Backbone:
């Protein structure tokens, strides 16, 4: 039997449901043909009431019904409303290698988990936070090394049986994961960190043992990454993964399970804001998402906190660990002050008034002399501070002081 | 909890332990350097350097240069050396070989004795091949950290150097010292403005005075070169990164010495006379520092950087530590270890310092660093601060 896809799209403020053979552009709108069927759950209920298997029924209907509608790619929406999404790690050898390379803290546990009977499974997101085709996927503001992980994703129905498969993007902040494996939840869970779609392939119409998974990343119309893998390299059986997820956790109806990645970009690769991520499983189609740095303009998140560090309590300046903009309010210890000029990453901000000739103190030591009046919130740098050491120009006048 | 780390190295007859088992091909004049390169190319497994300075008794810094060369020939990471020179009568040959301990394995090949360049090259190749074969019989054996001489250095400082990489290295250095090891803090020009911090930790008054004296000597020498230090120090790259003055740069740099007491102040390329933290008088030039600290017997060098550099030290592995994670992303094949998580607030200086100690031990055990993988072998000898003219 040819693989059959279940797809949803937006049309005139309405979400439509359709069936099609994999590869066909046009769909049979199920919701037109059968009343009260608007979702995967509805379809399954309908087939149960008729005592037919979903795949067989769909195949039958696609053969009988001639009506087809064409759907634009950009109108596609998430194919199923999940209640929960879980994910798995180190299920491919490539994934184990990449974790071992990136970690800074010894690596025995990755080798162990690859072999161990119990797989690594983790909660990825509540279903309401999973996004679909063409929605942005997030890049954390406090991480710099993100990669997409293209994964075969299993869709379980309300009774925990495999309803179908789709493509899933398990977005990951590798720098957090590398810093410490206990940061895994933060490396994996953030705004728009999970995407699935574009379609679900009905389980009975597809053999999932040898599916090709392809990842492409496009940046400024250039393909900057291309890799493929096969579910043939998946070390764990899907049944095994499902078993561990549900073992002590009665499944919520319509749970998704991402089965782990077999593609890890080379260590030097990291996603940038604006990158287009394309994941293809030929039977499922291509899931397209654009990476966006999480910010309040599109995500309901508080503005990023920039840490400003006073190294020693005696210091008259603090170091900014982010770019500060004029007018921005910052908190240094208990002191709240307003920034007067742009202060780049790593530069100093004045914490108190320094008159010309006053010492500037950092690390609890003298680092120079103020050459003009400095007020709290000012950028402190070469324009208003000078060195008092190594001054050959002062040597003739005063000699070198010790 | 008392920790006793162990590394696995090559025990030498003089009781020192190498982290590498190199056969070194060493030229004693620029004229024989191309021959050294040819020998290295023909005998896999050897390391060689090129010398671009004349080592001449008439040239300033002759004694320093000879001491540096001796330190390389008599180094725990070097199994044996093939020394190449034009003639046996070359004063540097005599100065170098006259008092070498019996435990040092070397063979001198001169163009004079061999009868020309081609024959010298063949003789050197044969000697190198014999040594390489002999190294196969040595195996790594455990040694405590009291046998480890760590050298520290920083280059391309940014505002994060004093917050992440240098304090983490300082913490790792303290851990090595706590287990009986030795650590060299160098780069005299980058101690200007930080003398008091070190002098306060000196174990005797004389050592405290030596710190003040050494730094002020270097400061005066540097000032003699130009009217004003500013413009050169901090370098434009440092300033762009947020460092305003040489004092600020120094205060960031001095963190890599940790908080251990200062046991001694030694001259360029001298071997430390004690365990613990030792200050070596070296210039700010990366390669000359590597060469001097290696000559002092360091078996592992840790180099913290806010800018990145591929430089290496041929016989001693140099671990590159980035101050920010972004740098490791930019230069993934040049950075061996990232101290950036301190800046991002994910890990503390102590956590990264402990991870860095593990990296140091892994490298001591034979793990290759970026500079070794790329075969870097820069070489240059510091020839002194120059005479005072007053």
Residues:
């Amino acid at each position: 039997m040819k693989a059959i896809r279940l797809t949803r799209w937006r049309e005139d403020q309405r979400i439509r449901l359709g069936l099609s053979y994999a590869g066909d552009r046009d769909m049979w709108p199920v919701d037109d043909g059968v009343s009260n069927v608007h979702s995967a759950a509805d379809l399954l209920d309908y087939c149960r009431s008729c005592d037919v298997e979903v795949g067989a029924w769909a195949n039958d209907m696609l053969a009988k019904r001639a009506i087809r509608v064409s759907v634009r790619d950009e109108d596609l929406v998430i194919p199923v409303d999940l209640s929960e999404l879980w994910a798995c790690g180190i299920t491919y050898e490539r994934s184990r290698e990449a974790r071992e390379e990136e970690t800074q803290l010894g690596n025995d546990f990755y080798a162990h988990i690859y072999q161990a009977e119990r797989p690594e499974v983790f909660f990825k997101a509540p279903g309401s936070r999973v996004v679909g085709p063409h929605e942005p996927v997030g890049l954390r503001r406090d991480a710099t090394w993100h990669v997409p992980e293209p994964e075969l994703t299993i869709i379980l129905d309300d009774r925990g049986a495999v309803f179908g498969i789709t493509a899933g993007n398990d977005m990951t902040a590798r720098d957090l994961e590398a810093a410490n494996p206990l940061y895994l939840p933060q490396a994996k869970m953030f705004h728009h960190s999970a995407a699935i779609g574009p379609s679900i392939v009905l389980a009975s119409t597809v053999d999932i043992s040898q599916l090709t998974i392809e990842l492409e990343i496009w940046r400024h119309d250039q393909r900057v990454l291309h890799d493929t893998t096969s579910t043939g390299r998946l070390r764990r059986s899907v049944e095994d993964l499902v078993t561990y997820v549900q073992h002590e956790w009665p499944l919520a109806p319509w749970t998704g399970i991402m089965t782990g990645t077999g593609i890890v970009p080379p260590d030097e690769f990291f996603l940038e804001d604006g990158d287009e991520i394309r994941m293809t499983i030929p039977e499922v189609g291509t899931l397209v998402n654009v990476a966006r740095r999480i910010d309040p303009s599109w995500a309901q998140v508080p503005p990023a906190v920039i840490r400003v560090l006073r190294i020693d309590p005696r210091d008259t300046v603090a170091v900014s660990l982010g770019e500060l903009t004029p007018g921005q309010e910052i908190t240094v210890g208990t002191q709240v002050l307003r920034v007067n000029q742009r202060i780049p990453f790593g530069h100093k901000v004045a914490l108190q008034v320094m008159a010309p000739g006053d010492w500037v103190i950092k690390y609890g030591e003298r680092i120079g002399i103020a050459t003009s009046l400095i007020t709290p919130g000012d950028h402190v740098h070469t324009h208003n501070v000078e060195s008092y050491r190594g001054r050959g120009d002062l040597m003739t006048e005063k000699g070198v002081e010790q | 909890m008392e920790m006793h780390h162990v590394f696995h190295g090559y025990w030498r007859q003089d009781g020192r332990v190498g982290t590498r088992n190199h056969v070194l091909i060493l030229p004693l004049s620029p004229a024989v350097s191309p021959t050294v390169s040819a020998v290295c190319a023909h005998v896999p497994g050897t390391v060689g350097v090129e010398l671009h300075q004349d080592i001449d008794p008439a040239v300033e810094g002759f004694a320093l240069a000879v001491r540096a060369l001796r330190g390389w020939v008599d180094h725990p990471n070097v199994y044996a050396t093939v020394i190449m020179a034009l003639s046996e009568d070359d004063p540097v040959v005599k100065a170098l070989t006259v008092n070498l301990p019996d435990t040092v394995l070397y063979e001198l090949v001169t163009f004079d004795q061999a009868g020309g360049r081609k024959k010298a090259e063949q003789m050197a190749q044969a000697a190198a091949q014999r040594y390489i074969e002999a190294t196969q019989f040595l195996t790594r054996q455990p040694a405590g950290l009291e046998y480890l001489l760590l050298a520290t250095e920083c280059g391309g400082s940014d505002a994060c150097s004093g917050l992440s990489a240098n304090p983490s290295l300082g913490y790792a250095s303290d851990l090595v010292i706590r287990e009986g090891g030795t650590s060299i803090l160098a780069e005299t020009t980058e101690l200007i403005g930080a003398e008091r911090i070190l002098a306060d930790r000196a174990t005797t008054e004389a050592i405290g005075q030596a710190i003040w004296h050494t730094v002020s000597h270097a400061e005066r020498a540097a000032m003699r070169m130009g009217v004003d230090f500013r413009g050169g120090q901090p370098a434009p790259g440092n300033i762009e990164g947020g460092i305003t003055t040489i004092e600020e740069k120094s205060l960031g740099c001095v963190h890599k010495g940790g908080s251990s007491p200062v046991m001694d102040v030694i001259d360029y390329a001298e071997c430390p006379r004690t365990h613990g933290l030792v200050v070596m008088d070296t210039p700010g030039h990366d390669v000359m520092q590597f060469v001097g600290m290696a000559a002092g017997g360091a078996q592992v060098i840790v180099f913290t950087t806010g800018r990145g550099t591929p430089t290496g030290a041929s016989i001693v592995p140099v671990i590159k530590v980035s101050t920010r994670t972004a740098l490791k992303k930019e230069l993934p094949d040049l950075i061996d270890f990232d101290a950036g998580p301190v800046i991002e607030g994910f890990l503390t200086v102590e956590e990264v310092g402990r991870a860095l100690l593990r990296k140091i031990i892994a490298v001591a055990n034979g793990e290759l660093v970026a500079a070794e993988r790329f075969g870097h072998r820069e070489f240059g000898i510091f020839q002194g601060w120059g005479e005072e003219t007053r």
